[in-house]
Amino acid sequence: MKITTPTYNLAFAEDVLKGLTDKKKHLSSRYFYDDEGSHIFQQIMKMPEYYPTNCEFEILSEQSENILEQLNFKEKFNIVEFGSGDGTKTKQLLQAFLNKNADFTYVPIDISEEAILILEENIRASIPEIQMNSKVGDYFDILEDISKEETPNLFLFLGGNIGNYKKDDALDLLQKFASGMKKGDKLLMGIDLQKSPRTIQKAYDDPHGITKMFNMNLLQRINRELEADIDLDQFDFYCHYNPENGKVNSYLFSLIKQKFYSKILDTTFTFQKDEMIWTELSKKYSLAEIEELASTLDFKVVENFLDKKGYFADSLWEK
Ligand code: AVJ
């Protein structure tokens, strides 16, 4: 007997099937980031309208000494990073900490071995003296191991990814982080803040159409990986910021009544004209909401480090 492993991602296949047959259609933004999508996200981060990356870069470049002081660690510590990306922003913090003679080991965690290898090379090239102990695997498995050690930890959850989680999911995720933390451990989390609705709208509804491509890549993935025949020209992108609740919601929608077929799923999907597929939540927080979130989870907010425009916060929490 010949055993063939599926060439497609099973979770993706199941979620597409569920998401596109539900009464209100949806596809998760976690599927944005295949190789193609990660590449488009790099382009998003280079757009002048997409302010979060530059804001967080500024915070970590200019305020890392203050962050180090606020950690108040008296001994050697770990800097454990969830979802490090290419490390460009983290490097600013690591370099500033080393300049102040802080004694730490950098522990980046990623599910992708390739991502970790690229990150290691990138970090070592610019900071050869760094002590690094990279981990490939599931965040929470690794967190469990780390939590058994005595060493104090600074956890990094940068980039504003928390904004992609609905309230209950954000609480669940942060609760899981908390359960892997000892008393005195710190969490530095990037959080995008509420601001002029025009500034936020422009960052997502960008004039270059790059964010549209980023969303459309979900349909491309369905075509590529689930052997489907979606006509991309018959879909468009829409997003909307609601300043009353701080939520950017993004959608793909069907320009006509249409259907497509996926060979892998052996399913035909139907769309009404103007039917929406919800793709992403990007929640913007107020400082009061950050305080409330922390206190719900029994964290203390040590300090919010904001960029000069006050657009973005790296919020330092203590367990
Ligand atoms: C990577 C989740 C922080 O929500 O701003 C960028 C992803 N989506 N443009 C965000 C994204 C559309 C981004 N995060």
Q: List the strand order in the largest sheet.
A: 4-3-2-5-6-13-12
CATH architecture of the largest domain: 3-Layer(aba) Sandwich
What is the terminal-to-terminal distance? 54 Å
Instruction: Report the CATH superfamily of the largest domain.
Output: Vaccinia Virus protein VP39
For the biggest sheet, the summary is:
7 strands, mixed
- Stated plainly, the CATH topology of the largest domain is called Rossmann fold
Which class of secondary structure composition applies to the elements?
alpha/beta
Quaternary arrangement of the chains shown?
single chain
Average pLDDT taken over every residue: 95
Count of discrete domains:
2
Low-confidence spans: none
Secondary-structure element order, N to C: HEHHHEHEHEHEHEHHEEEEEHEE
Shape estimate: globular
Rg (CA only): 21 Å
- What percent strand? 15-25%
Bound heterogens, unique: N,N,N-trimethyl-histidine
Relative helix content: 25-40%
Account of the 3D structure:
The chain has two domains: 10-49 and 199-283, no CATH class; 63-195 and 285-318, Rossmann fold. The protein has eleven helices and 13 strands. 39% of the residues lie in helices and 24% in strands. The protein is globular, with a radius of gyration of 21 Å. The termini are far apart. The chain has a seven-stranded mixed sheet, sandwiched between helices. The chain has 319 residues and is α/β, with parallel strands linked by helices. The chain binds N,N,N-trimethyl-histidine. N,N,N-trimethyl-histidine binds at residues 44, 52, 159-161, 163-164, 204, 211, 214, 280, 282.
